[in-house]
Amino acid sequence: MKKKRAPTPPSAFGSSTSPRPLSRPPQDQLRTALALGADRAIHVPVGGSDTDPAPSPRAVAAVLAGLVRKSQAEAPFSLVLLGKQAIDDDASAVGPLLAAALGWPQATFASAVSVKDGEARVTREVDGGLRTVVARLPAVVTADLRLNTPRFASLPAIMKAKKRPVEAVGPSELGPEVAAAVGGPPQVRTLRVDPPPPRPPGVMVASAAELVERLVKDGRLPV
């Protein structure tokens, strides 16, 4: 997708806990979005310390729904574009949860998007290949890897973004339901994380016949 000036300027929304030692501060990430062309950046801080758990997909979706409703009242728009999944939990849940909260149609895993006559035509990457769907606007679309070619922000744009404001909005300002979703107990807990089992060492064989014999012995080939 190429950047094109639209009647309603694009916005970058962010929801995060307080900055953690090994992560970029959320304000820096939002300023990167400003440098890449966003006209507005809003940060919703969640949590008060580095030991607080990361916000759940439900909490993030509630925050984004509150921001969408708040922004719609100021300047209506018809498309919310998100990444398809987070890189920490791989849940792929925020987009569908946001669409459900707003009552909007959704199209996930988009590799191509075109908008015409009040509809979004979305090509989705699925296991069997490509699937094209049409969603009436307003809609929520989650982006796959091949939707766009990433570009780098220019140095002048980065310097200008450093001087631009990043709005801070608390969850309570977005409504009691948002505050309840953020402050409530987590619905999903990580019990443990196990590394994959180590791979057995490789075995060298002298001939194809020996390879077949070993495969049959290990039960990988039928007798």
Using the coordinates above, name the CATH class: Alpha Beta
Q: Give the rounded overall mean pLDDT.
A: 82
Radius of gyration: 23 Å
CATH topology term: Rossmann fold
Instruction: Report strand order across the widest sheet.
Output: 3-7-4-5-6
- Beta-strand content: 15-25%
Helix content: 25-40%
Class by SSE composition: alpha/beta
Gap from first CA to last CA: 54 Å
Q: Could you say what the CATH architecture is?
A: 3-Layer(aba) Sandwich
Task: Give a count of the beta strands, DSSP E runs of length 2 or more.
Answer: 8
Which word captures the global form? elongated
Count of DSSP-assigned helices: 6
Q: What is this structure's SSE topology?
A:
Blueprint: E1 11-16, H1 26-35, E2 40-45, H2 57-74, E3 79-83, H3 94-102, E4 106-116, E5 119-126, E6 129-136, E7 139-143, H4 155-163, E8 167-168, H5 176-183, H6 208-217
Parallel strand pairs: 1-2, 2-8, 3-7, 4-7
Antiparallel strand pairs: 4-5, 5-6
Helix pairs in contact: 1-4, 2-3, 2-5
